[in-house]
Amino acid sequence: MKSPKQSVSQRLMSIGIVISVIFLLMAIVSPLLQAFGLLNPSEFLSYPIHEAPSAQHWFGTDLQGHDVFARTIAGAGVAWQVTLASTIISLAIGVPLGMLSGYKGGWLDRGLVFLMDALYTLPSLLLSLTIAFVVGAGVWNAAIALSVAYIPQYFRVIRNQTVSTKTEVYIEAAQAIGADTKTILMKYLAPNVIQSLPAIFTLNAADAILTIAGLGFLGLGIPEDVPEWGHDLKQALDALSTGENIWWTTVFPGLAITFMAIGLSLVGEGLTQRFSSKKTEG
């Protein structure tokens, strides 16, 4: 029987899934609409500047005459691309290093722990900002900049679980029959230490949404000609300095960032709660 806390967590997780799916559909639909000429986030010469929301422009237009609705929809695709790429890169590097470090121990473990702890102490936005400044603008460059900040998180979690798991009887049995390190890591350790990865992956994805928006706001990460919510907020801020009440240029990109981050966070928290309850039951 589920406890009230578990029921609430499951409902919130369901809400998070719905929100995340909506933004995923936005990312899928946007290129199709652009291909049919129904949505063009780059067109601005034929639109008036700072037009309020209307039947023609649902979310109004911005300082350069872009359709804010088109930019908001198209921004979901960029957000998903950078978020998924950065979390997959960090997972692909942090998980193998964490298992190898926790299993082998010794100088390799001490060296990797020192390196990852040094990276972990740095604020993720500051670290991503520094790397983005070095590697330059681009979707993949932005993903690389973000992934460096998340690698230590995967490493620490997987390494700690590997250390506690490698003393289990089935690991010692595999060592006794002569199984090599690769076989033990892939066949015996991996299935037992990666169970918490979906929760970490989702929470990192939520953080990545905020970080990439921060990079875009500062003019780094994504090229200016690519629709991105953080960059749109920067343009909106420049327009607010005129003293006019141009609320739509900030509200809609800001809501997109907020709701997508909340949706992924709710999914991550729900997965974390589910993983913790399974450990308790086990």
What does this protein look like?
With 282 residues, this protein is mostly helical. The protein is built from ten helices and no strands. The protein has helices spanning 4-35, 68-104, 106-120, 124-135, 139-165, 169-176, 181-193, 197-217, 229-240, 248-281. Helix 2 crosses helix 8. The longest helix is centred in the N-terminal third of the chain and has 37 residues, at 68-104. The model has no long low-confidence stretch (mean pLDDT 85).
> Spans of 5+ residues with little confidence (pLDDT < 50)?
none
Structural class: mainly alpha
Number of helices: 10
Please, what is the average pLDDT? 85
Taking all Cα atoms into account, the compactness measure Rg is 22 Å
Helix content class: over 70%
Shape: elongated
Tell how many strands the DSSP assignment holds.
0
Strand content: under 5%
**What is the CA–CA distance across the termini?**
15 Å
Could you give a short account of the major beta sheet? none
Short description:
Helix content is 75%, strand content 0%. It is mostly helical.
SSE order and pairing:
Blueprint: H1 4-35, H2 68-104, H3 106-120, H4 124-135, H5 139-165, H6 169-176, H7 181-193, H8 197-217, H9 229-240, H10 248-281
Helix pairs in contact: 1-2, 1-10, 2-3, 2-5, 2-8, 2-10, 3-5, 4-5, 5-8, 8-9, 8-10, 9-10
